[in-house]
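Table S4 entry, MFS transporter.
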Amino acid sequence: MGLRFYLILMTLVAVVSDYLMHPFYPIFFAERFGITDARITGIYFSAVCATVMFAFPVWAIVSRYVYELKILVFTQTIAGILALSCSFINSWPLFWVVSLLVIVFKGSYLLVYPFILRITPTAAHIRIISILSVIIHLGSVMGAVFGGMIIDWMQPAYIYFGMAAGDFFQAGISLYLLLSSRMEKPAAVVPEKTSRHWMELIPGGMVLKLSMITLLFYYGDFIIRPFFVKYWEMTAGSDSRILSGAVYAIPALVAIAGLWMNQRRKAPESPWHGILPALFLAVSGAMLQSYPSTASIIAGRCLYGWAFFQSAVRFDALLFHITDPASYAIEYSKIHFFQNLGVLAASLSAGVLVEYFPLNVPFMMATAGYLLVITMYYQLARIRLRPVNPI
């Protein structure tokens, strides 16, 4: 088993540990701290997103000088220790501080994504990105289901034990890869000898345009996430957290089918193609989910899962298509900053929306957001589009 296998395994474990709590924060806050205000949940989500936004670019810069695996040994060990401490904290302000510190160090695992693509031939990028996207979706499935099982069968505090175990696993694998004499290690990225002004780290040109589009793209996706479990339980009349987690994770299951299909058909001529049809499907999926019916929600989750997977894979492939391999981590951190800005805005506005409007309103906002993404992307890519294989 080569280096890439272990890196992909680390990605899966990282996503699972991330999603253990993700759908259940409103429930956890109510049971642990007595907090039921949806706006506070939205603000916390926004704080998490903001922390990742500013922490990951720092780790990306550090990775220009320090080997990624060395960084991960250090950061994931600290994240695991802090996550363990969260399971014992009963003070809401202290929980904020410590849990956000967990995110600061845990967020370094995002370096694995550009690292994998740096050691992968360009011709195989779409295939590897598809696999990684499915791994991320599969991890969200497992995390949501396991998190629901923990909340249903044990105490919510045990979720942080699971998160810590994932962090320690990543640190252990990173240390093993560093010490293994049989493992081929890629050459480190050597920074330019000429000094770089910090302003050069700000995205410009095509990367900036793509960043703005994906900001809205991820806004549309994440505005429906924080309160989806409550929306489903209200519509279905069920309080099973395991069932709620499974329905929440339907798009991840559909993504696995999307990977299987993508492996068995001709790839598009370039990453520019296939995005618009997928975005139109995402609009349809979001509209279906806005109708308060269990059948409509499940059908919408399936359609939306397919569309989001295809769009996200091609957006990522497009980014690495227009950037230099030596700068993958830096360039990915730039677009990731804007994506998380969209997530932050979505988390904050979702809390406000559900406080004053019905729980299906976030899906209407997502629909409007995707329509704007379609318009912006068409303006950017229209000269590069020609008829090719449909998605």
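DSSP finds 16 helices and no strands in the chain.
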